[in-house]
Amino acid sequence: MTKFRAKLTLILILLIGCSMLVAGIFMAKVLESSHVNSLQENMERELHVIASSGVWDYQGTDAELIKYYTAQAHRLKDATTERLTYVRADGKVLGDSDQLPEQMDNHLTRPEIAAAAKDGIGYTTRYSDTLKENMLYAAIPVKNEAKVTMGYLRISLSLAQVDKSIRSLWYFLVSGLAILFVIAGIVSYRIAKGITRPIERMTKVAQQITNLNYESRVPAYRNDEVGQLGQAINRMSESLQGQMARIQENERRLQGVMENMMSGIMMIDREERIMLLNPSAEAILGFSSQELLGKKYNEAKQQYDFTKMIQECIELQEPISDEMMFYYPAERILDIHLSPIAHEDEEWSGVLIVLHDITAVRRLERMRSEFVANVSHELKTPIAAVKGFAETLLAGALNDKETAVSFLQIIFDESERLNRLIGDILELSKIESKRIPMNFSPVYLPEFVDRSLSVLRKEAEKKHIELSMTVEDDMYIEADEDRLRQIIINLLSNGIAYTQDGGKVRLRVEPLETNADGDYERLRIIVSDTGMGIPKKDLPRIFERFYRVDKARSRSSGGTGLGLSIVKHLVEMHKGTIRVESEVGVGTKFIIELPVIH
Ligand code: ADP
């Protein structure tokens, strides 16, 4: 029970209790006086009844009179239980139901008798010396026909009896009051509860809202002021819930953007502490949020020039952008943008740092310019040869027929090479820019390999090279047939080119990774030769564009240095892998692994 409810209950109980007490006392007083009144009326009536039976007719001596009236008094007392006294007009007591008249003094001066003589009826309440208790007296004068007072009749009642009946009156009153009081208490409590309960509910809801529980609502109460307050609280919490949902939605969106953006975002607050770091920034800087958040930017173990840049931005209060080489966690080039964050009311509230990893972009740019340089260089050589021999011919070599023919043959060969070179460059750039779509279809391998070999058979025979193949029957692969052929012919022609006369070039196709049904999911194509091999130091680079182990030999074999890099691209377009194993003087083995189904 709350303090307020207890207080309210107490106040209500006190109010009801006090008014009941006042009403009770008043009622008791009224009851008491009406009780005494009715007693007195009864006594008067009894006195008149007794008087009407002609009490004063008896004649005789004093002693006789006393005897007679005393007997009379006793008789009447037996009937009424009230003390009866006969007093003669001169005040002498002639009879008494409780006392001997001889021992009683003159009663004319008794207040009730005096009042009776004066007003016709007299009442008093006083302590009786004779009976030693409080008594209520009532007396009337008894008159004859001539209206002469013959004497007085007096009856008295022990007040103990009156008190007893008043006490029982009080007893009923008090017990009634007590019951009423309990009922009042219960009613007060219910009333207080009725008033305070909605307030308590509202307080609870308000507390829950403070604790971010916006779903909490005040139950619908009556339509009075308390009910309206409840409704107002409900509307407030609804609006808060809506606003909070919007804020959370925005926060989620912002969080989503921050988490998924490629750029690294870092924020530094007024106190120069790092207060925000998105996952990209973590990856770029090689530090986790836990390591950096809350740290001062200059204590965050960052590269010196980066820290310096932030400091400069804070000092200048101006945006700064720069490209910077980072060496941790890996060597990278970063494009860094710093801008001070300013709000209208404040000078500045921090620095926003945006980091872009432009290593790949720069590397690509470098590769592109290198490629252009390589291409120019590669093109220059055959053109220089064509130009040189043509010049020599023009200068007069034309006259020597034999020389002229050999020169023209060189010019033809070089232009042929130029043609191949341009063809390869175009092919490579097409593949690299991913402009050509893949055209997958099932390829029946035994037939396909056989046909590819037959293209090169002539060339092999020229060098007396044994060309052989091993393919299991009923082997299929899903592939772009033209590109798969390009791969195989390129590798086989390299094998033939870099193998001495009388050597061997072999092609083997074998299934790989059979599944539960016994079907293969991948297959391996191996092109091996017994040629000169590739030195170990060159192995990692042979798939690079224009890379040749021995320029002179490659040139004499008509190579462009682009064949393997085209092969590698084509294999990757088939989601396969290619690797090379080689030993100088023993031979070379290119191993391709391809998935069967796309
Ligand atoms: P090229 O047109 O010069 O053959 P490739 O890209 O096809 O260019 O090959 C790159 C280089 O790899 C070749 O110049 C050669 O030195 C080496 N190479 C390729 N295949 C073989 C092989 N089967 N045996 C020995 N060396 C090879």
Topology of this protein?
Blueprint: H1 3-52, H2 62-80, E1 83-88, E2 93-96, H3 111-119, E3 122-128, E4 133-143, E5 149-158, H4 159-210, H5 225-260, E6 264-269, E7 274-277, H6 279-285, H7 289-292, H8 304-316, E8 320-326, E9 332-341, E10 350-357, H9 359-394, H10 401-432, E11 440-444, H11 445-462, E12 466-471, E13 476-480, H12 481-497, E14 504-514, E15 520-529, H13 551-556, H14 563-573, E16 577-583, E17 587-595
Parallel strand pairs: 12-14
Antiparallel strand pairs: 1-2, 1-5, 3-4, 4-5, 6-7, 6-10, 8-9, 9-10, 11-13, 14-15, 15-17, 16-17
Outline the biggest β-sheet: 5 strands, antiparallel
Q: Helical segment tally?
A: 14
**CATH superfamily heading of the largest domain:** Histidine kinase-like ATPase, C-terminal domain
Terminal Cα separation, in Å? Answer: 75 Å
Strand content: 15-25%
Low-confidence segments, ≥5 residues, pLDDT <50? none
In the CATH hierarchy, the third-tier topology of the largest domain is known as Heat Shock Protein 90
Known CATH architecture of the largest domain: 2-Layer Sandwich
Total beta-strand segments: 17
Mean pLDDT, nearest integer? 88
Q: In terms of structural class, how would the helical and strand content be classed? A: alpha+beta
* Helix share bin: 40-55%
C-alpha Rg, in Å? Answer: 66 Å
General form: rod-shaped
Give the spatial strand order of the biggest sheet. Answer: 2-1-5-4-3
Task: Work out the count of structural domains.
Answer: 4
